[in-house]
Design brief:
Elements lengths: L2 E5 L2 E4 L4 E8 L6 E8 L5 E8 L5 E3 L7 E4 L6 E6 L8 E9 L12 E2 L3 E6 L1
Parallel strand pairs: 2-11
Antiparallel strand pairs: 1-3, 3-8, 4-5, 4-9, 5-6, 7-8, 9-10, 9-11
Length: 124
């Protein structure tokens, strides 16, 4: 049985930091990429970044790369999302998802194993 579990969400101050973790069980991660997404109230789901376990490809969306860092890969069982310089507009539910992909990170619509999410709230 595949389990995707996010943790580390909570309340942060404007300008603060949070570190989210994603643990995936039941998959051979060497055949998968894992990504972070978020969805704010009333908005669509947004891809944040990903790590491909097989070749170490790491990507963060340009709009977030100055504040967000993703890490993971071979030898690790957890994908992390380090968020610095948080802003109220970062308030959202943050999700982790896995996709079977053999090189690099797949398009965001290819992810099919999802966690339940962890809430991040940034106060001004």
């Amino acid at each position: 049985q595949v389990q995707v579990v996010e943790s580390g969400g909570g309340l942060a101050q404007d300008g603060g930091s949070l570190n989210l973790s994603c643990t995936v069980a039941g998959l051979d991660l060497n055949d998968y990429a894992i990504a972070w997404f978020r969805q704010a109230p009333g908005k669509g789901r947004e891809g944040i970044g990903c790590v491909a376990w097989n070749d170490g490809t790491t990507r963060v969306e340009d709009s977030l790369s100055d504040r967000f860092t993703v890490s993971g890969g071979a030898g690790k069982s957890t994908l992390t999302l380090q968020m610095d310089g948080l802003k109220p507009e970062d308030t959202a539910m943050y999700y982790c998802a896995a996709a079977r992909w053999y090189r690099g990170c797949p398009p965001y619509d290819q992810y099919n194993y999802w966690g339940q999410g962890t809430q991040v709230t940034v106060s001004s």
